[in-house]
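Q: Please design a sequence for this.
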């Protein structure tokens, strides 16, 4: 008599399952069963296959099975500016290249082209969720939904006219409308974003926070990214950027503070006590020479820390594996201490850590029964990943970012054997190349 097996939609078997759960469980020859958008079982392959069956079964032999990476801070549409302005000072980068380029070229078309390219790049690299701040974010939300990637998107608010919002009030009204529109979107959350304390008035930042709190959505802001910003706030407000925001009543657990490079001991204490999430962007911080964020000190007080890439104009990619490698190397070098934190801590920062920063850790960031099925498969049968003594070390120190072969988001397979299933990749790359020709001609 045949066993009464439980029907799943998809089973991944025979893999090295790295759960990222609280216990740090790793299952050799492991399996994951998925039903609808969620994980319904995790365990040994024989055990799972004895209890479940599915029409689609993925054999993950020689592959790591783990939660997808969560990019906690980026500007997706800026992929069209990739490599446009490198190896120059930050002030020149902003005022001679980026701001003029955005003034001329930011449009619905630019956001469509740039975001499409970014989503393709992220999926290839194993990113299954992102946190984005830019303009025309209704376009970003539409593309992400169509392509099947999870994200939090926020319209950038600042104290001067921007392409689709003549005033900050217009931007806030648009954001509120988009929050309502996407309430039931299974992939997209709409949040509130203000650029930075030095570029936004007190009233704008406070009014935007009221909207974020009213709708219980995330409040995304650049904070203490550069020494210049830190010194400016001290000179003008008599407070650090963190202390200034705290004095306005803005800091709380729905705040995502991008960068957080220049933090004092008191700032770190405030961030931890208020539950603020720090989105760490080590590649960008090194390339633009902003400094080394005090991540070890933040970890020491159990502050929420996630990993992000920032935008491609300042990175120049959306490669979370490279970001993990840089995070580890930067802080070991900066502290002159190779034990400052482990490879496992870095992988956790890029997954469950980022999910905590985005307040989505109950849904994503680890492989656990009941969580959303956002899962990636990583090839290990490669020269640069052979042998494996410690899986976390292999991910952080050995991999290059092109080892991801399969991506499942919200229970749906988005990439199979390196082929994108929801995206016409050649068309997207062609569109980006054509769009960039006009940028190069006008900026040069």
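A: Design:
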């Amino acid at each position: 008599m045949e066993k009464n097996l439980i029907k799943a939609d998809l089973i991944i078997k025979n893999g090295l399952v790295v759960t990222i759960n609280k216990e740090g469980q790793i299952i050799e020859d492991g399996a994951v069963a998925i039903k609808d958008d969620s994980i319904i079982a995790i365990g040994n392959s024989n055990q799972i296959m004895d209890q479940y069956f599915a029409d689609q079964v993925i054999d993950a032999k020689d592959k790591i099975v783990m939660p997808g990476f969560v990019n906690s801070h980026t500007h997706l549409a800026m992929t069209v500016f990739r490599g446009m302005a490198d190896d120059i000072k930050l002030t020149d980068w902003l005022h001679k290249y980026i701001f003029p380029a955005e003034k001329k070229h930011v449009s619905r078309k630019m956001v469509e082209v740039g975001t499409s390219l970014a989503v393709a790049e992220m999926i290839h690299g194993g990113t299954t969720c992102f946190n984005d701040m830019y303009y025309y974010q209704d376009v970003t939300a539409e593309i992400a939904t169509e392509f099947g990637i999870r994200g939090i998107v926020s319209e950038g608010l600042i104290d001067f006219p921007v392409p689709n919002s003549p005033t900050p009030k217009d931007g806030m009204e648009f954001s509120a409308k988009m929050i309502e529109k996407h309430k039931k979107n299974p992939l997209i959350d709409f949040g509130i974003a203000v650029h930075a304390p030095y570029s936004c008035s007190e009233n704008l930042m406070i009014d935007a926070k009221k909207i974020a709190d009213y709708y219980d959505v995330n409040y995304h802001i650049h904070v203490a990214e550069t020494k210049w910003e830190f010194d400016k706030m001290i000179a003008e407000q008599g407070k650090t950027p963190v202390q200034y925001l705290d004095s306005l009543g803005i800091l709380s657990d729905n705040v995502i503070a991008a960068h957080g490079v220049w933090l004092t001991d008191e700032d770190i204490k405030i961030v931890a006590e208020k539950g603020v999430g720090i989105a760490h962007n080590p590649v960008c911080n090194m390339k633009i020479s902003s400094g080394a964020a005090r991540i070890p000190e933040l970890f020491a007080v159990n502050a929420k820390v996630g990993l992000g890439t920032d935008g491609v104009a300042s990175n120049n990619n959306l490669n979370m594996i490279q970001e993990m490698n840089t995070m580890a190397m930067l802080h070991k070098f900066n502290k002159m201490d190779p034990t400052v934190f482990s490879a496992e801590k870095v992988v956790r920062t890029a997954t469950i850590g980022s999910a905590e920063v985005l307040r989505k850790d109950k849904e994503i960031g680890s492989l656990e029964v009941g969580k959303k099925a956002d899962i990636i498969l990583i090839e290990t049968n490669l020269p640069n990943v052979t042998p494996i003594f410690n899986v976390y070390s292999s991910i952080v120190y050995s991999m290059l970012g092109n080892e991801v072969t399969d991506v499942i988001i919200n229970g749906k397979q988005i990439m199979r054997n390196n082929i994108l299933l929801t995206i016409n990749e050649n068309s997207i790359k062609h569109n980006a190349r054509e769009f960039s020709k006009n940028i190069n001609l006008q900026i040069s």
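Q: Thanks. Anything notable?
A: The chain has two domains: 6-67+373-420, 69-357. The chain has 15 helices and 17 strands.
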